[in-house]
Specification:
Layout: H1 2-23, E1 31-34, E2 37-43, H2 47-52, E3 64-74, E4 87-93, E5 96-104, E6 123-130, H3 133-136, E7 145-148
Parallel strand pairs: 2-3
Antiparallel strand pairs: 1-2, 1-7, 3-6, 4-5, 4-6
């Protein structure tokens, strides 16, 4: 009985160690820092990821965002198709904010026309965060955006 108990204890300890190693990522999560505020990022890498964006989520925690990187600066347009919550859309070029669309709400009805959001000047990435955070944290055009682990 003692041997069975000892084997069981060793197995449970090994399982606990394995679970903790499995949960801790080897690489750090991608983040964006705007002013002194950090956002953990989902990255929209593929054209399909960019098409779906945040519409697959019911909500977004206040320290999360989605980054849409592009090959070259251009006037990339965004809409709120199938979105479930409002967002702030931040257009970035070479590490600086070039335009912000604040408190962009999803359509109230499925058949409602879609507004298209574009920057005033070309951008090479877009950051989407929860609506109201740009005002709360006083983000503005010209603010620096630092990215890590992208």
């Amino acid at each position: 009985i003692l041997a069975v108990f000892l084997v069981l204890a060793i197995l449970l300890t090994g399982l606990g160690v394995w679970q903790s190693l499995k949960k801790s990522p080897t690489a750090k999560s991608p983040t964006a820092k705007v002013n002194n505020y950090d956002f953990k990022l989902y990255i929209a890498k593929t054209p399909k990821d960019k098409e779906i964006g945040l519409s697959k989520y019911e909500k977004l925690s206040k320290d999360m965002g989605m980054l849409f990187p592009f090959e070259k600066p251009d006037y990339y347009s965004f809409w709120m198709k199938q979105m479930k919550f409002p967002i702030d859309i931040i257009y970035i070029r070479d590490g600086k904010i070039v335009a912000i669309h604040k408190n962009v709400s999803p359509p109230k009805k499925a058949d409602e026309g879609m507004l298209i959001y574009k920057p005033k000047e070309p951008s090479n990435m877009v950051l989407e965060i929860n609506a109201g955070l740009c005002d709360k944290y006083k983000f503005k055009e010209g603010d620096k955006v630092s990215l890590t682990n992208i």
